[in-house]
Task: inverse folding
């Protein structure tokens, strides 16, 4: 029987596990949390830390595992590469790609080398935490090697600055933080598929974040595809990224990069060389008929990424359709009741709903400002942006999540989009 180890146990990785199980593969999840959501439907699971490379290599040999794959977790891409190298099995990551895409300092270095505009900023460690003179408030402070908004904060004055630096340092394994100009402008993402050394743009989206949580890291509350900035991106950034990909000799895999757009300048800022929490692959599978999760699972066994008809099916313009992901974020507290979710799931435009909490679960205060406060992502596809706007209004009416005192827990709803931007 085919056996695969999947690294990481978050709910987003759980969807990947479900796909592997559905493909008839014996699926083993490795995560230190005994109650990790991705373990629920796995064939087997082990409470091993994803960084325990030798322990996982040993486990793979004992269980006669044929393949290893990383789930939706940036920090596990490096151990994924190391484990595969020791077992001599297919791995889409390379040491160069890990350096370029799995830490903010590595990414900044490669952006400079390939003349890709990134956000003005500087790296500091605990030996030199004074505010850089060439950067003015507000500033964004972030650990160089953590994801999902953890340890990130906007700061606006000297007092706030010192505290934010010390917090960010605690969340960095390397003990390094990035201090950047805070960008208050449009936000977008480009999602690439690599097949046999050729980079294909598979999706371009606009990301909408909430500013409701003061100076915590802005968390996404929605995305819409294709981006209104698609042409600008393809003209200004795509050719330079292709040079970078060529220089890194990337052969296979999936890569998401986030960008800010200000005054027609595109600033690169956050890469992820793995499946995404936003999961553009759900829209892609529905509209274009290929599934990155299946492609990556098959790749883990064969070293072949997708079918020969991939290039023909791949269309970042989504065949003229509009896709939208509605993120439902919760405030802190214990969930008392959830109403209307079945109505949302059964709507003809809904193609998938990811749920991360159930009634009686608690949303911790320290999760606010990170993706851990996401209750659900609702995936919707329609012919026009007007239809998408109407679904946002409908779902806002029907979905009610209250705490144990009957108070509303939904932080904020995605606002309707301006039709002229997406017509």
Result:
């Amino acid at each position: 029987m085919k056996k695969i180890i999947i690294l990481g146990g978050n709910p987003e990785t759980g969807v990947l596990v479900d796909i592997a199980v559905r493909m008839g593969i014996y699926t083993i999840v490795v995560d230190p949390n005994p109650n990790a959501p991705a373990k629920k439907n796995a064939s087997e699971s082990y409470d091993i830390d994803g960084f325990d490379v030798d322990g996982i290599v040993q486990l793979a040999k004992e269980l006669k595992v044929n393949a290893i794959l990383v789930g939706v977790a940036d920090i596990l891409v490096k151990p994924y590469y190391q484990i595969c190298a020791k077992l001599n099995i297919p791995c889409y990551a390379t040491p160069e790609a890990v350096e370029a895409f799995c830490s903010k300092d590595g990414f900044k270095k490669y952006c400079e080398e390939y003349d890709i505009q990134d956000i003005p900023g500087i790296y500091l460690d605990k030996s030199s935490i004074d505010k850089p003179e060439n950067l003015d408030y507000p500033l964004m402070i972030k650990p160089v090697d953590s994801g999902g908004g953890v340890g990130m904060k906007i700061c606006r004055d000297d007092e706030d600055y010192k505290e934010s630096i010390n917090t960010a340092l605690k969340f960095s394994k390397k003990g390094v933080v990035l201090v950047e100009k805070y960008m208050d402008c449009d936000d977008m993402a480009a999602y690439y598929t690599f097949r046999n050394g050729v980079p294909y743009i598979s999706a371009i989206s606009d990301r909408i974040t909430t500013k409701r949580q003061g100076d915590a890291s802005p968390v996404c509350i929605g995305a819409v595809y294709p981006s209104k900035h698609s042409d600008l991106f393809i003209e200004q950034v795509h050719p330079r990224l292709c040079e970078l990909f060529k220089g890194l000799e990337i052969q296979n895999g999936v890569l998401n990069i986030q960008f800010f757009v200000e005054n027609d300048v595109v600033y690169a800022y956050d890469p992820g060389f793995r499946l995404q929490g936003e999961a553009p692959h759900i829209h892609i599978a529905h509209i274009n008929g290929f599934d990155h999760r299946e492609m990556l699972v098959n790749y883990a066994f064969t070293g072949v990424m997708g079918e020969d008809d991939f290039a023909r099916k791949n269309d970042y313009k989504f065949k003229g359709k509009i896709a939208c992901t509605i993120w439902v974020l919760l405030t802190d507290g214990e969930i008392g009741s959830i109403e209307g979710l079945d109505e949302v799931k059964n709507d003809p435009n809904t193609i998938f709903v990811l749920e991360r909490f159930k009634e009686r679960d608690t949303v911790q205060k320290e999760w606010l400002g990170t993706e851990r406060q996401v209750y659900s992502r609702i995936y919707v596809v329609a012919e026009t942006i007007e239809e998408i706007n109407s679904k946002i209004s409908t779902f806002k009416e029907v979905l009610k999540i209250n705490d144990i005192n009957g108070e509303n827990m939904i932080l904020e709803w995605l606002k309707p989009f301006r039709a002229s931007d997406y017509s």
User: Anything to note?
Assistant: The longest helix spans residues 385-398. Residues 224 and 324 are 4 Å apart (CA to CA). The first strand starts at residue 3 and ends at 7.
